[in-house]
Amino acid sequence: MEGNSATRNDVRVEVVTAAFVASGVPEGVRDLGRFLENLNNPAIARHIELRQATVRPLYRAASPLVVDAPLLVRRDEIVFATFEGPHIAHDVVRTATADTPCLLMAPPFQIQGTVSFAPGAQPAQAIRSVLGSFFAVREARVYDAEGYMLGEGEQIVVNGAAVQMTASTKRHIEAFAEKAGTIRRAERAHEAAEEPMPVQERVERAA
User: What is the pTM for the complete model shown?
Assistant: First the structure.
C-alpha cells in the first residue's frame, strides 16, 4: 500500500486487551508513526476512537459485534495492537541499526519478536528504556500464557506498561504437548459439530 495515496479507509487497527479484541479505523491516524505518537502522547485523551468498529471476546474469532457508533478504547488497557496501513513517518523503526530478540510477558500473552534500538545500547537497558511507552515489535509471535501459539505478524505495537517481565531471548514458555493436543482435539470436535465451544469448557477440557 502506497502511503502517498492513502486515505482514511486505508488504515485499520486491531487492538487487543486482556478480555476483548476490537478492530476499526483510528480517528485522525494516517500512518503507523502517527498511531504511535497518539498512543504515547499524554496530552491526548486516554481513549482512542475507532470508527467502523467491531468487537469480540478474546479467543473468540466468530461473530464479532458490529458497533454502529464510534468505539472508545482506553489506551492503558491495550496489551498490543496490529496496524494495517502506511508506515511512513515511522522511519525510526527501520533506521535504528541495533536489533535484539525479546520475550515479553504481558498477561495473558507471551510476545516474542525483535526490537530495534540505537547502536551501542545494551539489550537489557534498551528494553527497559521502551517499557514506559508503546513500541514496535517486528517478526512477532503471540502465545497464550502457557505457550499455545495464537498468531504472528510482521510488526505489532506493544504497550510497555502491560509488560510484567521481559528478557532478551528468542525463547518462550512452550505449551505442554499433551495439553495443547487435548485443546486441539476438543476444538476439532466442536468444529465438526458446527457449534462454538465456550472458553470455560475449553479450559476444563485441557485441565
Answer: 0.76
